[in-house]
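Hi X.,

You mentioned you wanted examples for the new student's onboarding notes, showing what a folding record looks like when two proteins sit in one file. Here is a clean example. The first protein comes first, with its sequence line followed by its C-alpha cells.
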Amino acid sequence: MKMMARCIQLDMECAAICYAAAQLMSLGSEKAMDICRLCADICEACGKECGQHKTEHCQECAEACRRCAEECRRMAGAAA
C-alpha cells in the first residue's frame, strides 16, 4: 500500500480539481479557464503516476486522466 500512496494522493487531487473545474465552468466563472489549465496539469501528473502501476484500474485511471488533461487544455485554449 505504501508504494501506492502518491498514486492515491494524486487520484484525490485530480478528482477534487476536476469537480472544481466543472463547477466553475457551469457557473460561467471568469476563472474557469485558469482552473482548467491547473486541472490539466494535475490530471497529467496523475495519469503519469497511475501509468507506472500494472494494475488494470491504474491503467484505466491513467487513460482517463490523459483524456481529461487533453480536454482541459482544449477548454483553457478555447478562451485564450
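Then the second protein repeats the pattern, sequence line and then C-alpha cells:
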Amino acid sequence: MFEANSQNELLSPSQNPLEPPLQHSPEPPREQPRQGRGGLRTGAIIGLILLLIVVFVIGGFAGWVFASAKSSATGTTTTTQAATTLDAVRESVAAKVKPTIVEVYVTLAKGAALGSGVIVDSRGYIVTNNHVVSVSTTIQVILSNGTKEPAQLAGADAAYDLAVLKIAVPQGGLTAATLGDSTQLKVGQEVMVIGNPLGITQTVTNGIVSALKRSVSEGQGAPTIQNAIQTDAPINPGNSGGALVDLQGNVVGIPTLTAIDPEFNTPANGVGFAIPVNRVKTILPQFIQG
C-alpha cells in the first residue's frame, strides 16, 4: 500500500495513463512575402506611360503633317484664286477700255504713219501724240468697230507731245474713256497699255509703274516732257497716243516714247514713258472751247 501511494505521488496529472497524451496545435502557415507584385505594378505603370508618350508623339507628328498639307493646299488655293481674280480684273478693264481706243492713220508728204488715240469726249474729241500728227497732210481715225472717220486737228501741246483731234459723231455715238488722276499713281502699281503696236489693233499689254516724274525727250531738238510716267509695259511704235490705264479702267497716262539703248541705238525692252493724264485734263477744255 505504501508502494502504491508512492507511485501515485510520483505521477504528475499530465502523466495519467488514463488520459490521452497532449498534442501541440500546429502553427498557422506563414504568409509568403509579396516580393513580385510591387515590381510588376511599377513596370506596368512605366509601360503605360511609355505607350502614352508614343501615342502622343505619333499623334502630334500626324497632326503636324496634316496641318502642313492643309496649309500648303490652302496657300495654293489662295494663290490660284488671287491669280484668277487678277485675270478677271484685267479682262474687265480691257473690255471697258477697248471701245475707246482708235487707230490714227496719217498721210505725210512722203509716205504714211500710224498711231493710236483715245476718245476722251463723246462729242468726238480724241487725244493722241503730237508727233503722230504734227507733219500730217490728212488724218483718218479708225474706230474699234472698224468705222473710218476723217479727223481735224483741234489743238496741240507740243511741249507735252499731246494733240487733240475732232471727228464727227457717227451714228450710234461714241464711248469716251474715264480719265483718272495721275497724281495718285504709286511705283509698283500694276497698269495696262492698250493701243495698236506695230499696226496690230486693239493690243493689250501689262506691266507696272517703275518710276515717276521722269524728264524725257523725243530726240535732238525736241522738247523735254516733264513728269513722265515710266513703265515696264511695252510701248511699241503704234502704241503712241494709246491709253495707259489702271486696274479700275481709268486712263492715267498717254504712252509716248520708248527708251533708246545708247549702245545699240535701238528701243530698250521694258522701259517706256507716258504723259500724265492730268496734263490732258488741263489742256482738253481749252481746245474744246476753241
